[in-house]
Amino acid sequence: MKYLAAFLFVVFVIVGKGQTCRVLLPSIDSIYEGECRKGLAHGEGRASRFDVYEGEFRKGLPHGQGTCYYQSGDVYSGSWEMGLYEGYGRYTPALKTEVFEGVWKKGFLLPVIEDSDWLRDYTVKKLVNVSAVNFRRTNNSGATVRVRFFRNSSPSGVYELQIVGTSGDAEIHSDFPVFSYVAFPFAARLTYKMQSTSGSSLFEASVEFVITQEGEWDVMVYH
Asked: What is the pTM of this model?
């Protein structure tokens, strides 16, 4: 048993050119080979555990250009910032039913603003389990987009809300998200869960839209 314990310790030690070197992303923190700085993966390297990452590191996290091969068979290749997808990248699921390629921000793929979007003040790009979306510009100047959710015309809260926008600061005020200091054209994607009519379960929903005209906007999402 003592020999087995010693063997396991050797297998899982993280080594960076002769020195112990830590990787701070749990899914790849078992074995590391590459450059180190102050005890952390820094520079070019390869790290693995459940997943395998090959590329650049900074302060123990994927940062710069790199590729991650996930245990599921999915692959992401592109730009990283402190362990998250950031910048241009390509995510290929194992089944390859759809490839997600474009600009990422804090781990989320940003909506694409197309030339045809300029033909209108606003455009709904995608809806999932949403009945309708209404837009109202409350001020012709400004740079704020507020989103509110409704069920049967009454304000409703949502669960597990994730928001991403092409610019500005994103915050959640009470039960609704606000994008401040945005630059137009502005695109946003919101994914969340909402309680079913019976109240016994949650269903997934999402909305994606583009606003081209500057101002302060209220976006009402109806279910």
From this structure: 0.73
